[in-house]
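Handout, section 4.2: multi-component inputs.
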Amino acid sequence: MGDLNTQMLDKYRNNFLREVEEKVDDGDWVKMCMQCGVCAGSCTFGPDWEHTPQKIFMMIRAGKREEVLTSHSMWLCTSCYNCMVRCPRKLPITHIMHGLASYAHRLGLAPKNQPTRDFSMIFWENCTKTGRVNELKMTISVYFREGFVSGIKKMWTLRNIGRGLFFAKRLNPLELFVSHGCKDKDGLRRALKKADEIEARRRGYAVQPRGYSS
Amino acid sequence: MTEVVATNQTILVVGGGISGMTAALEAAECGKQVVLVEKSPTLGGRTALLYRYFPKLCHPICGLEINLRRIKANRNIRVLTLAEVSAISGKRGDYSATVKIAPRYVNENCTACGDCAGAVAAEVPNPYNYGLDKMKAAYLPHAMAYPQRYVLDASVIGTADADKAKAACKYGAIDLEMREETITIKAGAVIWATGWQPYDAAKIQPYGYDRFANVITSLEFERLADPHGPTGGKILRPSDGKEAKNIAFIQCAGSRDENHLRHCSRICCMASLKQTQYVKEAWGEAAKSTVYYIDIRAIDRFEDFYQKVQRDPSVSFLKSKVAKVTQDKSGDVILHGVDTEGYHRYANAHDMAVLAIGMQPSVAGVDIPAEIVADSSGFIESSAAESGFFGAGCATNALDVNRAVQSSTAAALRAIQVINKVARAEA
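Output:
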């Protein structure tokens, strides 16, 4: 085989598709995509993001690892499931997109300061602590994500809603000090730990609780 | 009309489309006795409703005419129209089929003069134009109908229209006393040529077939282009009768889709390529066809036709499965999607969209015996070795006319072998 052939072979030798199949939830479906474009055309966010599912799947096959894993697209998915319902090959597209997002996050390649990703991390940390979401703390964390001044501004804009929630007994200021929680917090932690272990074993990850890597 | 002498050496052919006619003829011309059962009032099936064949763009009338002449000339074939097989029992070499014959209310005296149609006022949706227009309740299905005999629609029986039709007939051909008959036919082998039906386009929700008048199926488009069709062969869109010059063809409408039909319907690519030529024929320089496709499956000898259409400046190709169709105030349809060659998002307006609708096996109404094995799409697979049932044509697979005829000839040969064995055993 000539040098050029060998070079081209190396260029097209694609390990990324295999990596996705092994490591990403529902990643083994990616090869089933026939590039018809229905997902891209059906996506409610379609015009607003750079890489539609159709494009992401082709990029995976083309071995564009960096571009795929650093893409903002997976994080913009609103889980409307339009693509998944219409896919003529029944690919679980929404799940693959979430799987890719989660994998990119695990590797620390996910885009920094991506609002969906930040929100997800805040939510996860918040709800796994006590087994219940402390909405007050979570709201504050989300508002002050971009600094003190912008946090105050956001709170000011939404002050009427906050007041409404307070009078409707949906917002308890004491939650700032004492969080309510589920009955068996240890049980919850054990369940999550176990889930992490199972996932790590199946996918060959080093055990590392979700939400703490970045 | 219904006295049929059938024995264990008779071949029963179910379905009188191009496949059933072919199978019946091939067997009959080999000297076998054949009973051909067709549930509509005429032979010809869906083939008779096509404007032209691909790839030569010749008219189906030609091929049908030859076959009808063969049928008329052959004493071995008995044709039963308006007849449906309702039950079948027995085994290879010895079947017994129950056939229900619906009343036509018109007897053999009919000369197809059409006076009854002139007398009748009531109109019914015209299934021979896929419901695009209406026809008189006394009708000849189409110009090529066989038998060439009128039908009185059951909906007018008992009304004044029926009496008017009877009074108008100079030949005493209208018989309002006809009743449904049930007969039993013996047969040594049965050929199932039950054909196909278009997939229900309304089920493809994003294409809006049930919401937008200007989204039609490829079969309806055949009727629009046909001089015998509802528009006299003018390609006018249904919503406002505007001349449709800029037409979108949406491929794989229902086919190759796990949510609809999982198989490739095989004919639709060629059918749409053919139909682009209707548009060109109708409007010349002003014609504009756009084919939206996943991939064009113009196999073997059809490749030439595909290349010819590719060179045609009135036709453009867009590699994309359309995601959604909408309609604007002017009645134009807007196709939305993303193409695969460059990932460009488009929203293209067209006068009309034609869905290249998928083929579904039509087995409704027939109590299919357990002996018949169907594949995951419902097409008949080859039966077990000890069976005397054989599938033919589109009952077995999505086929074009050419391949359906081949398949039917094969089925006839298989049936003949069964009959020969029976004949030897009985001799």
